[in-house]
Design a protein that fits this description.
GMP Synthetase, Chain A, domain 3, 15 strands, 2 domains, 3-stranded mixed beta sheet, Rossmann fold
Length: 385
């Protein structure tokens, strides 16, 4: 029986590498694996009694944190793979046959787990010194320049490039990220701690996910600053590589709140080519003179429309460069024009379908000029600056 106990212990160790997609912790650390039972097939008493070529039935008892968890299949598939791929060095020809028994975590155990997780997150996790997450706040001087579309496609690009990506819809009154990502569900409420909704590889939260509900969980007060604090602290984000915030247009309270709550945030200003938009966009960047936030760069949206190989400058040209030059002069450091994005009907069409235009229907980066521009933008942003 010693071989059986060794197999059970080794499988438990392998399961420590199976990560809960929402909590970002291993299923063993979370206490989700309650027991592992390895039994030689055919009534053999020991692994050696299988003749070296038999099978061993391995039953793994799993307790999920949420009843009818939408990620149950994902977790069980990972556990199945971890068991099947195990090879006992003493009996390499013995195959392991996994059997996964799934149940829900008892309420007292779940309560204790959530309290433990919350104890690690007593404050905004993104304000801690040494945080690895790169934070980019996407801003614009006025509405209608495609700021939210830029945020959605940039987030999808980061995720497709392999970065653990999160996005907060901080445009409280004009939220649009749920629609752009095709999200129609609310975040899972784990005993008062919210799990962000994942779509197209991006972890999302937006007040739009609660609009129309009887009880909007994140609204505990009318102040925008408090709502942002709750987006940051009451949602389990894990440790993403990238966090994007879609700010409200202009230079209102939310921009100040972001600067206070996220001192490491870098501002990316979105504008369009025409002077009426670019002049106002400069103001959204000048907020950095009053709050401790670095302006990283400028993105010019709707720069041109390509028709029969010719780039038509429908909205004029030069707006992004003007914003770049004026912010560079005012702030005393280089604020480059990082991207000039084309005007494309596909951007609207796929966005209305709930898929970022940079992605294929399968979720991979598309082979298009638009996807290439966003890929270049994402890589520029991740460079240390």
């Amino acid at each position: 029986m010693n071989d059986i106990h060794t197999i059970e212990a080794n499988i438990f160790e392998r399961l420590s590498h199976v990560i809960d997609p929402e909590l970002g912790r291993s299923v063993t650390d979370l206490g989700m694996i309650t027991s592992i039972e390895a039994v030689p097939s055919g009534g053999a008493a020991d692994a050696d009694d299988t003749g070296g070529n038999g099978t061993i039935d391995v039953t793994v008892h799993v307790e999920l944190t949420v009843k009818d968890c939408p990620l149950s299949e994902t977790i069980t598939n990972q556990i199945n793979g971890a068991v099947r791929s195990y090879v006992n060095p003493d009996s390499p020809n013995v195959a392991l046959v996994p059997h996964i028994e799934v149940s829900s975590m008892p309420q007292d155990k779940l309560t204790s787990l959530v309290q433990t997780l919350k104890a690690e997150r007593r404050q905004n996790p993104f304000s801690k010194p040494g945080i690895k997450t790169r934070i980019f706040a996407i801003a614009s001087g006025k509405g209608g320049v495609g700021k939210s579309s830029v945020t959605a496609n940039l987030a999808a690009t980061f995720a497709a490039l392999g970065y653990d990506t999160a996005a907060i819809d901080a445009d409280i009154y004009g939220f649009s990220l749920p629609r752009l990502f095709g999200v129609h569900t609310q975040p899972t409420n784990l005993n008062g701690m919210l799990m962000p909704v994942t779509a197209w590889g991006v972890k999302l939260i937006s007040i739009g996910m609660f609009a129309g509900a009887d009880r909007a969980i994140l609204w505990r007060g009318p102040r925008l600053q408090r709502s942002l604090e709750q987006f940051l602290s009451d949602v389990w984000w894990g440790e993403p590589d990238v966090l994007l915030l879609d700010l409200a247009p202009g230079t209102g309270d939310m921009a100040i709140s972001v600067a206070q709550a996220l001192p490491n945030a870098e501002l990316v200003v979105v504008t369009t080519p025409q002077p009426s938009a670019s002049d106002i966009a400069v103001r959204s960047g000048l907020v950095a003179l009053q709050v401790p936030m670095k302006v990283r760069g400028v993105v010019e949206n709707m720069s041109y429309y390509e028709h029969k190989g010719e780039k038509l400058r429908i909205f004029g040209e030069g707006g992004g460069q003007r914003v770049s030059e004026q912010l560079t002069a005012a702030l005393g450091h280089d604020v480059p024009l990082m991207a000039q994005l084309p005007l494309m009907p596909e951007l609207r069409e796929t966005g209305e379908e709930g898929r970022p235009a940079v992605l294929t229907p399968e979720g991979a980066l598309a082979s298009t000029p638009l996807a290439d521009e966003f890929t270049s933008l994402a890589r520029q942003l991740m460079e240390l600056h």
